[in-house]
Amino acid sequence: MRWIERFAFLHPIWLLVSLVGYFALSLAMAPMATTHAPVLIPAMAILGFTLPLLWITGLRALARQAMGMAPWNGWSWVYAAVPLASVVAAASLTTALEIAGAAIFGATIAYFTSIWLTARALAAYQRGPGAVALTIGTALLLVYYIIGAWVLRPVVRQLKAATSE
User: Fewest CB atoms within 10 Å of the CB: 42, 50, 65, 104?
Assistant: First the structure.
């Protein structure tokens, strides 16, 4: 099992801790962001989405592996595009707002694409390809990952059993 796939087994409490930590640090740094470093808040957003994104990436890799497919395919670059576009946005926020806006838009599209790809892989693992309603429901659980991590816990345990054999 690769290191990224181990993030699928992350206990949901750590996802909650990352979200609470992100909000606490954002609030603590908000007064400084307007005068000293406007890059601090986007940088904190990168940190706030890193752990959930690693969890989502691990889930997709495990679901594909449990179905006998290669864990990575041509769409795997989308998972790396989210933090890279976020870094570009944070770096260009002070100088080129057009680039920052485009990078934020790109990161948002890549994030929701990664959620959709993961939801589709999990739904295909559970019910087979074409389970559209389950894919939409799973995507919503991945968007609201604090709740979704607890609801999808039995599926994660099934994936662990299927891939450890």
Answer: 50
**Can you tell me whether residue 15 is helix, strand or coil?**
helix
Given a contact cutoff of 8 angstroms between Cβ atoms, the answer to whether 6 and 58 are in contact is yes
- H helix runs in the chain, sequence order: 3-6, 12-35, 40-66, 77-92, 97-127, 132-143, 145-151, 153-164
Rounded to the nearest 5 degrees, what angle is found at the Cα of 112, between the Cα atoms of 38 and 125?
A: 145
CB 61 within 8 A of CB 69: no
Contact 16, 56 (CB under 8 A): no
Token readout for 120 is 């589709």
- For the stretch 91-148, pLDDT in tens is 776 677 777 778 878 888 888 999 999 999 999 998 877 788 888 999 999 998 889 8
